[in-house]
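1st attempt posting a full record on here, be nice pls
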Amino acid sequence: MFPKRTNFIAQSSFIKSAPYVQEPQRLPAFEGASTGYHSKVQLLNITIDNLTMRELLEKLHTGMVITPNVDHLVKLQSDREFYNVYKQADFCICDSQILMYAARFLGTPFKEKLSGSDFFPAFCRFHRNNPEIKIFLLGGAPGVAETARQKINSRLGREIIIAAHSPSFGFEKDADECARLVEMIQASGATVLAVGVGAPKQEKWIAYHRHLLSNIDIFMAVGATIDFEAGNIRRAPKWVSQIGMEWLFRILKDPKRLWKRYLVDDLPFFSLLLKQKLGVYRSPFE
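the predicted structure (as C-alpha cells):
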C-alpha cells in the first residue's frame, strides 16, 4: 500500500555503519514486558496492539497510527464510520491510563501506556539523525503548528518538521480546501504526516485522503500533541497521568469545553466494560 523506504533500524550492523544514524534510543524497559502478555488486547469492539514504546518505534515504517482512549471507545459504539476507520488502522496503541486499568481488570494487561503526546516526541527523537523522516504537521489554531515546528526543530537540532499548517475550522467539509491540503502535503517532500485536529475528525481525514498522499509513509493521529509541543496547552504533570487523573486536570483547565465529554458522554464506558467482563458485551456493528 505504501512505497517502501530504507528500514534504517532493521539490522544492527547497518545501524553501526550508516553515517547518519544514531544508535536507537535506549528506552526504559517495562518490568516484565517480555513475558505474560497478549500481542493484542480486546477492549469492547476494537483490538489494541500491546507494544512497548521501543517495540512500536522499531516496528513503525509505514502505515496509520491511531491512539484510542475512553472517549474513542464510547464513540465507537455509535459511529460506524469511525469504527470502519479503526479497522483500517495499521497500529492501534493505548493512549489512556484508564484503558490500562480496564485491560488489567479484564485480565489482559498492556505492557505500557503509549499516549500520542508521548509517542510523537519519542518518534522525533528516535529519528533525529534519519534524513528519510520528514514530518508535516497539520492542526492547531492559526500559527500553532508553525510554533510547534520551530520548537521541535530547535530542540532536535535539525529540520525534522519540514512544514506545518493550521487548517480552517470545518476544513474537512470543504472539498476545495482538502484538495489544496493534499497538494501542499505532497509538494512539501514530507514522508510522515501528523494530524492533530481532534477525534474522530483527524482519523477520518487520514483514512479518506491517505490514498492521495503517495509520498507519505507514516500517518499519525496525534490529538492535542501539536498544541502541547507549541506550548499552547499545558500537559498534565506526569504523576497525574500515571494515576489516571489527566481527565480531571483537563476539565479544570478547560471546563466549558470538556466537562460534558468526561462527566457525561464517557460514563457509559464503565458499564460496557463490565458487560465485557461478564461476557455479555456485543459490538453494535457485528
